[in-house]
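INFO  loader      accepted 1 record
INFO  loader      residues=237
INFO  predictor   begin
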Amino acid sequence: MNEQPLRVVVADDQALVRIGFRLILESEGIEVVAEAEDGEQAVAAVRRSRPDVVLMDIRMPGLDGLEATRRILAGGPENAPRIIMLTTFDLDHYVYAAMAAGASGFLLKDVTPEHLAAAVRLVRTGDALLAPAITRRLVERFARPAAPHAAAPHRELATLTPRELEVMSLLARGLSNAELAARLQLSEATVKTHVARILGKLGLRDRAQVVVAAYETGLVSAGTPGTPQDARTARTP
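INFO  predictor   done
INFO  writer      dumping tokens
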């Protein structure tokens, strides 16, 4: 049985960007089912066409990409599309806010055609687009640390086992599945199972949100040692 074609909505206020992305994606066999030039149109297009992935410009007139992302994902992760934010620079505070709202990562607008198509396919599988270490850079810069009186784990973290808390804290430090397996003396399959359970128990969409949650709940804090180099590619959870 052939896999269903991947369906994408492109939302950007610049017509040349939309046209360019459409041509690139369609040349890779990816169907662009709708275009939008602002957030209102993006929300309407998603509700109408039910895409797998949305390429969402962060800064658009009227309703911006961040608020459009929140509205699209407000109903929860079930049947919601994966959203990739488009930006012109990587440490944009809107990128962090979008990830906290549920976006699966971001792309710079000067992305290569090969990376664009690969990124869309990657997030469709449920993976986060950006490397955990890059996510950490954003979190350390923009996350609000837990208040001193909130040092105890957030109430939602109480659903996690001690091993799952350990895995979550190491994820937040940017460790890959292979590094987690070596550190904890587990198989990579077992690590993947722990990650899946963390996502399910906390209602998170991907590893990017796990990193955000770990910092915002105080499970880990900025400056925690042990982060691998930032130049890591994204891993499958």
